[in-house]
Amino acid sequence: MTANVIEVNNLEHSYGSVKAVDNISFSVQEGEIFSFLGPNGAGKSTVINILTTLRKIQKGEARVNGYDVAKESKSVRKSIGIVFQMLCLDYEMTVCENLEYHGKIYSMPKNERKKRIEELLKLTELENKRDTLAKDLSGGMKRRLELARGLMTKPAVLFLDEPTIGFDIQTRMRMWEYLREIKRAGTTIFLTTHYMEEADQLSDRISIIDHGKIIVTGTADELKNKLGKDLIYLETSDNKVAVDILRAIKSVKNVTEDTKSLRVMIGEDVTHVLPQIIEQIRQAEIDITTINIKKPSMDDVFVHYTGHDLREGEPQEKHEGMEIMGGSE
Amino acid sequence: MNFEFRAIYWRDMVKFFRYKSMLFSSLIQPVMWLAFFGLAMSESFDQLTALIPPIDGVQIVDYLSYMGAGIISMNVLFSSLFGGTVLMFDKQFSLLRETLASPVSRVNIILGVGLSGVTKAYIQTSIIIVFGKLLGMDFFMGYTLTETLIAIAGIFLFVGLFTLGFLFLSGSIAITIEKPEGMQSILTLLSMPIFFVSNALYPIDAFPAFLKFLSMFNPLTLLANGIRYFALGDNFSVIGNHYVYTTMDIGMSFLGLLFFALSMLAVSLWRFNKVDI
Lengths: 329, 277
Known about the structure:
Chain A is α/β, with parallel strands linked by helices. Chain A has helices at residues 44-51, 73-79, 95-105, 110-123, 139-151, 169-184, 196-202, 220-225, 239-248, 270-283, 298-306; strands at residues 4-15, 18-29, 33-37, 59-64, 67-68, 80-83, 157-161, 188-193, 205-210, 213-218, 230-236, 252-257, 262-266, 288-294. Chain A starts with a strand and ends in a 23-residue tail after the last helix.
């Protein structure tokens, strides 16, 4: 039996007349990595801020590690670790001192602090940086130090708000390795991201969130399988007619029209269906100009459920965290 | 009771002693005031004093010693008034987030910041006293060792309350305001009247009645009174002005500073509880 570490029921939150979070319910089980995937402004950060008691809950109910975020905020705070979207280290202090400070404000006894710092420096491979000032670390190392800090008190849940925003792919992949390692050690992780690969690679379960609502929740495979086994992208000389032909084929689950191409979801193995599709379109004297077959990705899942590309919904404003966050290692 | 304020205090102290240039300048500044302004002014004022007939049985204090108390007050004023600025930068660069998201109560954060400010003020005060004595300041003249220690304890008590009051004030402004320029101008605006409408550097006897009245409520006047009482005694004259401090006077100064510090604590708690991150 696994217990729910996070339990959210009918959560709502508005800024003035703008509803940022709209009647959200979900739960996170002990030991899993749970992701909120959605564009900027979807309401992810608001949810994380409410769960970490940084923002007062307006409507609904939320429990973290069994504690009510509205009434037992102190107990909630003691149960969690947070890695904020923006880097927030004390740059004038060393790696060790940053961790030491964190242990102190959480009232950890001295010998426990010492032991934990050693463990975490090892985990995040910052052992030979222990006396380096935080400002002299590379961007990836700074993030790792924040990760170590978030884990300092052995929290029941680690919250990460866009943990790899602004990083290059190598740094990001290394970060994922650390997060998997943390999960293996038994920590529950709740993260928000707008990177498809991040949600896909890392999470046990994903909730796609858009305009303050959870659109769908499931494992990456479940979400992809709902789209069918394979996807075919087609460009033809007459898409309009081709759509009708395709829809009449039994193993075609769904057809959507893009500006130029058709996206065809196939319920069974594509190798058997493809000859049939080509044959039937040809018979209608329509030319196929391009054909492309792929397995459904999280991108496809996202487009399917929200009706738009993840990047379309993205506001163009600059990210506050970007400037202070270095790129690579 | 929890002691998390010690963590805040520890962090501030680590950084204070790490940056030698900042440490050095904050320590050297009071010495420069004493050495340049103090010595120059006291020469001219003491020539004036020589022309005024002494009052019988009243000790004449030279201007340097009078001003020494003022230099302590002034240094403590500026370092505490600008001491809260660090919180604004902490807030802006979101360093404060970690602390505000922790189980530490806001009062502990304020206390930690306050205590580190008091420590810095004590270091500055000690430097001025030691260096002033070397320059010939008449602090603790004719005191026994015990009397000197009591006097120093008294000075530290006053300096402590005063520093806390102004740190809480500047911390409240820092946490409320968004722009560094705004902070700078507010502090400059505040420091002018506080500094000049006080008896820190010169006697207020010749002030216009209105300013004189105002200056009596100025925490800087209350602090300078306290330091002079402990360092120079309860009966002395300087540049022809006769100073007599009764226990009542000093008690009122103390209560005034206590009231100031407590009300600023209340203000800062109110502001800190409003901080959203």
